[in-house]
Amino acid sequence: METDLLGIVATFILTILLAWPLGKYISAIYTGAPHWSDKIFGGIERLFYKIGGINPKLEMTWQESLKALLSINLIWFLFAMFILMNQGWLPWNPDHNPSMSPDLAFNTAVSFLVNCNLQHYSGETGMSYLGQITCLMFLQFVTAATGMAACAVVFKAMREQTSQKLGNFYTYFIQSNTRILLPLALVVAGLLLFEGVPMNIEGKANIHTLEGNAVQVARGPAAAMVAIKQLGTNGGGFFGANSSHPLENPTYWSNAIESISIILIPIAMVFALGFYLNRKKLALVIFGVMTVGFLALIAPALYFEWQGNPAIDHLGVTQTLGNMEGKETRFGTTLSTYWAIITTVTSNGSVNAMHDSLMPLTGMSALLGMMINALYGGVGVGFLNFYVFIIIAVFIAGLMVGRTPELFGKKIEAREMKIATLIALLHPFLILLGTGIATYVAHQKPDIGWLNNPGFHGFSEMLYEYTSSAANNGSGFEGLGDNTPFWNISTGIVLILSRYIPIIGPVAIAGILAKKKHIPSGAGTLQLDTLTFGILMFAVILILVALAFFPALTLGPLAEHFSLK
Amino acid sequence: MKNQLFTAIKLSLACFILLVVIYPLAVLGIAQFTPNKGDVAFVKVRDKIVGARQIGQVFTQNKYFWGRPSAVNYDSGVSGGSNKGPSNPDYIQTVQARRDTFLVHNPSIKASEIPAELLTASGSGLDPHISLQSALVQVARIAKARNHSTEIIQKVVINSLEKSPAGTPFVNVLELNLALDRL
User: Fold this and answer.
1) How many structural domains is chain B composed of?
2) Which residue in chain B has the smallest CA separation from A97?
3) Which pLDDT tens digit goes with each residue over B5-56?
4) Do B148 and B111 share a structural domain?
5) Cβ contact (<8 Å) for B7 and A52?
6) Residues A10-35: pLDDT tens digits?
7) Residue of A202, A239, A328 with shortest CB distance to B122
8) Nearest Cα residue in chain B from A237
9) A418 CA to chain B: closest CA distance, Å?
10) What string of H, E and C letters represents the secondary structure of A435-487?
C-alpha cells in the first residue's frame, strides 16, 4: 500500500506540473493575441469559420453568447435522439444491438449532451459502433468545448473594465476543440493504444476458453472514445464496466494516464484564469481551497478502504488488501480510491471500481465531491460553479465589514446576488427533491425492484443517482435498476436543469458585472488573493453544503457506517 | 434565432468531419503500429485461440488456478460488478459460502489464510489477475491434482509474477494456467 500511495502522490504532482503550462497555453488561446499555435491550427479554423459563416472578430454580448450556446445544443440533442433511436438498423452495428426505447434514448441523449454521461445502458449490448462514435464520442468533444467556451466568456467578462462585448463564443468553442481537446485526445489515445486498449472495427469475437467454455469477447473502437471521455470530464465508457474493464484500462500505466487526464484540464482552467487576469496569486488561492477540500475527502476514503469490511473480517479470512469487492487486482484499493475521489470532484464520473461496493464513508466522500461540485469541477463549468461561491463569499465578506461588496472593481448588487443564491440552492433542491420522491415511491411499492441493496444502502443508491445527475457527474451506485421510465425521465429533467441554469447564471452575473462602471481599488478594497479570503471561501462552501446535505447523508452513508458490524 | 440555428448546423457539420471522421481514423492509423494492430491480445495454444490475455475466464477444475468470483461469470460479451453494498446481509452470506467452498477444495488451508480478494467479485467481472497470496493458497491443491511437488508449482507462480509498479504483486491467471499445462 505504501508503494501505491507513493504512486498516487506522484500522479497528482505530475498532473499539477502538466496543468501549469497547459493553463498558460489555454489563457494565451482565449486572449486571442497572435500565438505560435496559429501556424498549426489557423488554417483548419479558417475553414471552420468559412463553413459556419462566422466572423471570428465579431464580439458578442453575454446574451448573444448564450443564444448561440443553446441553439447549437438543441441541434445536437435532435441529432443524438435520431441516432440512438435508429442505431438498430443503421450501418456499422456488427453485434446487431437494438435501437433505444424513447425514454432511454432521451436519458442517454440528454446525459451526453450535458457532459454528464449517466449510462442506463451497457456499451457491449446497448450501443452500435456507429452510435458510440458518431453520437456519444462526438458529444464528448463538443460538450466539453461548450463548457470551456462558457468559461472563457466569464474570464473575458472578469477582465474587462466596462464593456458589453465579451469575445466570440464560436471562436472560443472551435479553438477549445481544435487547439486543446483534439491534440490532447490524440496523445492520450496513442498512449492508451500501446497499453493495450483496443481500436478496431470488428464485432465481438467468439472463442473457446482453456476449460472449453464458449464465450464472446467484446471489442471495438474504444481507444478514441476513452481518451476524450477522460479529458473532457465526460466519463461515459465504451464498455459497461467503464474503466474497471480490462480492455478500457488494462495496466497500471493506462490507469495513471487516465487518472491524469481526468483532472488535467479542470486544474489547468484554474491556472488559466490566473494567467488570463494576470492574477496568478488569486489562481493559487482558488487552487489551494480546491486542493484542501480534495485532500479532506480522499484521506478518510483511503483510511476506510484500507481497513476493509468489518463484516468480512468476521468470516475469519484475511483482508490485508482492504475492501476488494468491486475492485480490480491490478489497481487495488489505493489506486481505486484515488480514482473514486478525482472522478467525483471533477464531474467526470468514469470509474475503475464499483462505487456501490465502496465502504459507506468512502461513498460519502464521493457524494460530497459531487455535492460541492466545484473542487476542480467539470471542464469549464467547474470554475463557473466556483465563481458562484466566490460571489457569495465576497458578499458575506462585504456584509461583515460593512462595505458594498465588490469583485474586481465592480459592485455586487441585489440582482447578481439573487442569481448566485438561486444557483447555489438549485443543486441541493434538485437532489433532495428527486431523492425524496424516489424514496416515497420505493416505500409505497416495496416490490418495485429498483434497489440492489436493502436498508440505508438502498437509500444511498437513490441519493447517489440524483446527486450524480445534478452534478452532471455520471458515475453511479450501479446496483440501482435505473433503466425504467421513472429514472430515465426524472434524472433526464434534473440533468437539463442542472447543466444549463448553472451555465446561464454565472455568464449572466459576469455579463452584468462587466457592463458596470469600474471603481479603482483603494485601501478599503477586499483583497481576494489572500489566505484570509481563501479560508472564507472554504467556510462558505462548507457551510452551504453541510446545511443542505447533512440530514440526507445521515440517513444514508452515516447510518450505514454506524450499523456495520 | 433562425440565423443561429443555421450557423449551429453548419458548424456542427464541420466539427463532425474533424472529430468523428478524421480523429478516429487517425487513432485507427496509430493502432496499426501497436503489437496487436488495435485488436485484443488473443492467446493461442497450437494455433487455436484459448482466450485473451487481458480478459479473465472461468476456471473450476482443481488442476487450474481459479480467478476471483465474477458477477457476470466471466462472460466477456458483457461486463460488470456485483454492486453489493458492504452491509448487505445476502452479500455477506455469499462470501461466506464461497469461503466454505474454497475450504472444501483446499483442505490443507485454514480460513485465516484465504485472502478476501479471492472471495470478492471484481469491478469488471473480467479481472484477469489474482494477487500472489491468492495464487499461493491454491498451490497445495494444484500440486495434488497434478501429482507434482508444491515447490514446482510454487516456482511456476513466482516465474509468472507480473512486472507492474503496483505495490501488491499479482499474476495473470490464464498465463499461469498455460504455464502449468506446459509442465
Assistant:
1) 2
2) B77
3) 999 999 999 999 999 999 999 999 999 999 999 999 999 999 999 999 999 9
4) yes
5) yes
6) 999 999 999 999 999 999 999 999 99
7) A328
8) B79
9) 28
10) HHHHHHHHHHCHHHCCCCCCHHHHHHHHHHHHHHHHCCCCCCCCCCCCCCHHH
